[in-house]
Design a protein that fits this description.
alpha/beta, five-stranded parallel beta sheet, 5 helices, globular
């Protein structure tokens, strides 16, 4: 039985399709949904740290957080069109680690995530979805 679904959203097309699939699944089982977005850390090459002022780095982090807040808001708007119980959470950190830990501590029955995220590497699976699938303690549904 599926009672609690964790849906990771990042604004990518695959995440949007994952959300749609999760909403259908939740509707079928009358499950609760947690929409989770994770603001990744801002990484810069070491030489860049010597050039950029700390305020610029802080500004970049704030802007990135605002982008992910908007992603979460759009996903929530879509989900609220259903009669399901939908919750949202914005976290900071390494996306795969936060998704896995949230699913584990929240006793989720399934994680639904897009097979590819915002990265544009030439892999069959995105690195986050691959690590979530490999390390989660509950079933993971990857949506293309």
């Amino acid at each position: 039985m599926i009672n609690k679904i964790l849906v990771a959203v990042d604004g990518s097309d695959h995440a949007d399709r994952a959300l749609s699939f999760a909403l259908e699944l939740a509707n079928k089982y009358s499950a609760k949904i947690l929409l989770l977005t994770v603001v990744p850390p801002v990484f810069l090459p070491i030489p860049s740290l010597n050039i950029m002022k700390s305020q610029a780095l802080s500004d970049a982090s704030i802007e990135l957080e605002n982008v992910f807040k908007a992603v979460l808001s759009r996903a929530e708007e879509k989900a609220k069109k259903t009669n399901l119980k939908v919750f949202t959470r914005l976290e900071k950190g390494n996306p795969d680690e936060v998704i896995i830990e949230t699913a584990k501590t929240g006793n989720f029955d399934i994680i639904v995530v897009g097979s590819r995220g915002l990265g544009h590497r030439d892999y069959a699976l995105g690195s986050v979805s691959s690590r979530v699938a490999d390390n989660a303690t509950c079933p993971v549904l990857l949506v293309k």
